[in-house]
Design brief:
PPR_rpt; Serine Threonine Protein Phosphatase 5, Tetratricopeptide repeat; about 70% helix; Pentacotripeptide-repeat region of PRORP domain-containing protein; mainly alpha; elongated; TPR-like_helical_dom_sf
Length: about 775
């Protein structure tokens, strides 16, 4: 069950609030990076006792000479004259650490080890040796190539039963781990007395394991810290280490899922540890980027309800995610929650909301929020922030997208009055695009001229916007002139510019100009994409210029792109139309080689071509393969085959395919298919069969058209079935199917010959001819 939301005063006094947390973090960082102090220190006197300082100074001076020249008698007198006690751990630590080299320190350590062995106070002797050993390790760490030497010294200590104290343990684990000797670092940790494995040391081990990608090992250590009965539990440093590592984009080792990270956040929360603003923002952003907005919402609500600190940046990340999925209801709920918790929205917050309102075409709501923010409305609801250029540009673009360009212009003038804001290239691009979209090309060009007068540099987006507007309204020559003008001024077009122009010239069948632009693009060194090549291939294929299309294909491959199924279909269709069967085969083989699977359009194109070429046996095989590939034939597929068999005079085969349509196609026969069959049946003197198909059309809800009736009238005339013709004429009138010149030619010649001109007159006037008294 969620805990109630904290009040404002309680929230500010919470140890997890930003100011208090910053203080704690500073203390913890100081503690985290200390290797020579007890992580749980007892109060110490601010100054070392005078006798200890004197002893340290005397011994260090004595040991300055070469190890072979040490005066051992004097050294023994200084350190071990009192046989009842060993030198203090503090003294031995400072003496050892102030020696010049690790070798000298190690020799001194050996000396001390030999002399404290006889001490009656074994606990004090052990503590003294541990402190001296820690100092030896510190000196060794400072010297080159210390990696293996550190671990060798640890093994030596183990062999001689010298306990490793906390400072030495931290130094060993951190130094070995960060030098890449992770197994050795773990061995040190595992071999320590359980009492030494406190939270600080466990944090160091987790940090090392995560750094080297040993995620599962790190999580095992962490799980023990989550145990409610554990002596040493997680703290805020643990949370920082774990979440910082797992939220990195370039994390070593096994990738931990967002869901698992959310679970860790909740486990930390049970111990009163919450991610700081930066980490919580990263997690929410990652969840939203992976379209897991609901989980991002749950995480933020959990932290809020559990008393964790939440700042504006976290809310902004969630607002961005909610906006992407158009969840404006929860955006409003979050804004209300921010107000309740005294989390003040900043200019980014308002910008996010305005941006998504504009994208969803809710511009009036965006304008209302803008007015409240800038203090122009009656109710500000605590929202107070200075609008910036991005916000103005977002609103202007939103207004232009919904056809309110004039309001956009007025807002630009208001923008000029705002301190620190001024129209820029983005502002003008939005307005120019808005006027172009409604066909006001002249106004768009005027804005471009105004932009230049104000010294605002146009961008390639400006160029593309104006070129697109000119092309949309058929002013292709003006578009070329404008491109040339911009290039003379030093602004070159990009792939979008050329794609727009090439596509427009292909659409008006000016392939020559399209090809010229394509070559100009290549020679200019402009970065290209596959789309511009596809556009050129399509235009050339439609124009039947397949040699040129093949040339563009070679350029596409040289540029590192490959053909997709759409491009293959365009080329296959082009080669079929130009009857280049060998090239069709090449395309099919290439599709198989590069792993592009043919789709329904590919098969339909092939079947249509084979049918027109009279290769019906191959067409049948292609149809079978199409079905075996799991593709459902369309009415076009079957129509092509039916038409081909009808032309061949094989009505029985055509009718078999017609009947198969119901079981093998999701699309039932349409008017075109019925017309092909009815026409073929009538031509083969099977009029009654054709009439039955017309009845079938009525039952299936397929509406006959003028071509259907014309085919029937021809067949009825050949068999002199006048009464059937009269019935069909009434049917045409009832269905408001207008006769064409072929209908009138057939009926005029036939009915005039048999003296039924009155019925013909009434039919032309749109009356039922059955009512005729003629």
């Amino acid at each position: 069950m969620n805990q109630p939301t904290l009040s404002t005063s309680k929230h500010l006094l919470n140890p997890q609030s930003s100011n208090t947390r910053s203080y704690f973090v500073l203390l913890l960082l100081n503690h985290h990076f200390s290797t020579d102090s007890d992580p749980n220190p007892k109060p110490k006197p601010s100054k070392q006792p005078q006798e200890d300082v004197s002893l340290v100074t005397q011994v260090v001076q004595l040991l300055q000479s070469n190890e072979k020249d040490w005066n051992l008698d004097q050294l023994r007198h200084l350190l071990f004259s009192d046989t009842t006690t060993a030198p203090s751990p503090r003294s031995l630590f400072h003496i050892t650490r102030r020696l010049e080299t690790s070798s000298k320190a190690l020799k001194f350590f050996d000396y001390v080890s030999e002399n404290v062995a006889t001490s009656p106070d074994s606990a004090a002797a052990t503590a003294s040796l541990s402190s001296s050993f820690q100092a030896v390790l510190e000196l060794t760490k400072r010297e080159p190539n210390s990696r293996t030497r550190l671990f060798d010294m640890y093994k030596m200590a183990k062999e001689r039963n010298i306990p490793v104290n906390m400072g030495a343990a931290v130094l060993l684990v951190r130094s070995l781990g960060f030098a890449g000797m992770v197994d050795e670092a773990v061995n040190v940790f595992n071999g320590l007395d359980p009492a030494l494995k406190n939270t600080h040391l466990r944090n160091v081990v987790i940090d090392v394991l995560l750094k080297w990608g040993r995620v599962d090992d790190a999580l095992k250590v962490l799980d023990k810290m989550f145990d409610p009965n554990a002596e040493f539990r997680v703290d805020s440093v643990t949370g920082d280490i774990v979440l910082s590592s797992l939220l990195k984009r370039e994390q070593r080792g096994r990738r931990v899922s967002d869901e698992d990270i959310v679970g860790l956040v909740q486990k930390f929360g049970e111990h009163g540890v919450f991610p700081d603003s930066l980490k919580l923002t990263k997690l929410i952003t990652s969840l939203c980027r992976n379209r897991n907005t609901n989980r991002a919402w749950d995480v933020l609500q959990y932290v809020i309800n559990s008393g964790g600190a939440v700042e504006t940046a976290c809310c902004n990340a969630l607002l961005t995610g909610l906006g992407r999925v158009n969840d404006f209801k929860r955006m409003n709920v979050l804004m209300v929650k921010m107000k309740e918790m005294d989390i003040l929205p900043d200019v980014v917050t308002i910008g996010i909301v305005i941006n998504f309102l504009c994208k969803s075409r809710r511009v009036d709501e965006a304008l209302e929020l803008f007015e409240r923010m800038s203090g122009g409305g009656e109710k500000t609801d605590g929202i107070s922030a200075e609008p910036d250029e991005i916000m103005y540009n977002t609103l202007i673009d939103g207004l232009c997208k919904v056809g309110r360009q004039e309001e956009g212009l007025r807002l630009m003038e208001k923008m000029r009055l705002q301190k620190g804001c001024a129209p820029n290239t983005v502002t003008y691009n939005s307005l120019i695009d808005g006027f172009n979209k409604v066909g006001d090309i002249k106004r768009g060009r005027e804005l471009y001229d105004q932009m230049k007068e104000e010294g605002i540099p146009p961008s390639v987006v400006t160029l593309n916007t104006l070129v697109d507007g000119l092309c949309r309204h058929g002013r292709l020559n003006s578009a070329i002139e404008f491109l040339n003008e911009m290039q003379r001024n030093g602004l070159k077009g990009n792939v979008t510019t050329y794609t727009t122009l090439i596509s427009s010239f292909c659409n008006v069948n000016n392939i020559g100009m399209a090809m010229e632009l394509f070559e100009q693009m290549l020679s200019s060194g402009c970065s290209t994409d596959a789309k511009v090549y596809y556009c050129m291939i399509s235009g050339l294929s439609q124009a039947g210029r397949m040699d040129d299309a093949s040339f563009v294909v070679s350029k596409l491959k040289d540029a590192g792109f490959s053909l997709d199924v759409v491009a293959f279909n365009v080329l296959i269709n082009g080669f079929c139309k130009t009857k280049k069967l060998e090239k069709v085969h090449e395309m099919i083989e290439e599709m198989e080689t590069v792993g592009v699977k043919p789709d329904s359009i590919t098969y339909n194109t092939l079947i249509s071509y084979l049918c027109s070429a009279g290769e019906l046996t191959i067409a049948d095989k292609v149809l079978s393969k199409m079905i075996n590939e799991g593709l459902v034939p369309t009415v076009i597929t079957f129509g092509s085959l039916i038409h081909a068999y009808c032309l061949k005079g094989d009505i029985n085969k055509a009718m078999k395919i017609f009947r198969d349509m119901g079981s093998k196609s999701s699309a039932p026969p349409n008017t075109v298919v019925y017309n092909i069959l009815i026409d073929s049946l009538c031509k083969n003197n099977q009029v009654e069969f054709a009439l039955s198909l017309m009845d079938s059309m009525k039952d299936k809800g397929v509406r006959p058209n003028t071509l259907t009736f014309n085919a029937m009238f021809k067949g009825l005339r050949e068999n002199n079935l006048l009464q059937k013709a009269f019935q069909l004429m009434d049917q045409m009138v009832e269905q408001a199917c207008n006769p064409d010149y072929i209908t009138m030619e057939i009926l005029t010649e036939w009915l005039s010959a048999v003296g039924e001109t009155e019925k013909l007159r009434r039919f032309v006037q749109g009356y039922d001819i059955a009512a005729s008294t003629a």
